[in-house]
């Protein structure tokens, strides 16, 4: 395994090494908050920003082109006889030259072009520029590889329509079910979990705070919202603190228990792409989910099994209030959702799909 790593992710590599995986990492600090860190990041990413401004790559892609990663992969290839290389994430396409003589597969965890296209509804010029660049780049990336994996059928169709001619396989990520005892639900509690360095999660939380919670609490003042996740901007921390019935918990180590103790996971996701792992994880914890059509992409589970879909914030608010009126039925739906997620995303189910691809 060759990977970029942030300074707070060292424990993850230790876990992998203990499992017998040969891990090689390149330090890549992200989300710097200190002045020195921001200056260092600006210097480090100056070439990436230049390439973005010249229209070569979206900045998010360009910043992962690193000479030390090129050298690491070249060394590993020269020292080993690999039968296959699996590349995770489209931003790692920069290293195809180092593996050009080895059969290779790339996993698109989402389609960035779709993310930028949906992000254009916010009228930000960066999304429009990145969309124009990415819609040409992403099919080219896919065509560099012997096979492509997407996590959803929706992403497969989108990438095909962009012009990717490589055979695309739809293989969702496996869900490892939480090893937790029966956890009592906190009455009247809804939750949202996300990494807040991603625009879809930031937008979803703002909709929760500005539009959904006020309407829901107007109908039932007892309902509370629990928020967990890293990198929440200070302005949203302050907004959460000012909003009645809302608590921001920051990074939560035992996220399984945090989600399992909630009556409902509400995710007003209106931009983004790919399969939203936070939602399948919630169902695996026995907590039903209320989300949008975009949030539910790739999760073929119906309302009878704990996944409700609404299109507008107003409809999400009304459905949330309606569902929270009967938490006993919600808990039963969460149990059925857990069984359905196990059927669709269990390690055995995913392994069968991978065996078809790798023969």
From TrEMBL:
Gene3D superfamilies linked to this entry: Glycogen Phosphorylase B (3.40.50.2000)
Transmembrane segments: none
CDD domains: GT4_PimA-like
Name the record gives this protein: Glycosyltransferase subfamily 4-like N-terminal domain-containing protein
Taxonomy of the source species: unclassified sequences, metagenomes, ecological metagenomes
């Amino acid at each position: 395994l060759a990977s970029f790593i942030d300074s707070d992710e060292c424990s993850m590599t230790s876990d992998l090494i203990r499992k017998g995986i040969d891990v090689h990492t390149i330090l890549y600090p992200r989300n710097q908050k200190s002045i020195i860190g921001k200056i260092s990041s600006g210097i480090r990413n100056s070439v990436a920003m230049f390439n973005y401004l010249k229209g070569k790559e979206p900045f998010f892609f360009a910043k992962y082109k690193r000479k030390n990663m090129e050298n690491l992969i070249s060394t590993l290839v020269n020292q080993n006889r690999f039968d296959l290389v699996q590349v995770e994430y489209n931003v790692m396409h920069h290293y195809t030259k180092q593996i050009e003589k080895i059969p290779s597969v790339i996993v698109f965890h989402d389609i960035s072009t779709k993310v930028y296209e949906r992000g254009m509804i916010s009228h930000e010029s960066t999304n429009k520029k990145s969309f124009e660049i990415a819609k040409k780049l992403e099919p080219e990336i896919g065509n560099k590889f012997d096979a492509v994996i997407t996590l959803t059928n929706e992403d497969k169709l989108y990438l095909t329509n962009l012009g990717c001619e490589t055979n695309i396989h739809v293989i969702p990520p496996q869900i490892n079910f939480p090893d937790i005892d029966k956890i009592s639900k906190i009455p009247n509690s809804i939750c949202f979990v996300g990494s807040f360095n991603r625009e879809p999660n930031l937008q979803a939380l703002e909709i929760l705070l500005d539009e959904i919670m006020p309407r829901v609490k107007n109908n039932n003042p007892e309902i509370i919202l629990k928020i967990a996740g890293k990198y929440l901007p200070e302005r949203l921390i302050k907004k959460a603190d000012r909003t009645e019935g809302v608590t921001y918990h920051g990074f939560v180590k035992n996220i399984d228990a945090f989600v399992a103790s909630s009556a409902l996971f509400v995710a007003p996701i209106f931009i983004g792409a790919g399969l939203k792992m936070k939602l399948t994880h919630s169902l695996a914890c026995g907590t039903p989910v209320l989300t949008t059509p975009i949030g539910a992409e790739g999760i073929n589970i119906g309302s009878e099994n704990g996944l409700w879909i609404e299109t507008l914030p107003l409809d999400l608010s009304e459905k949330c209030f309606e569902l929270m009126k009967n938490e006993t039925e919600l808990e039963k739906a969460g149990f059925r959702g857990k069984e359905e997620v196990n059927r669709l995303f269990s390690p055995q189910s995913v392994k069968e799909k991978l065996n078809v691809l790798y023969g």
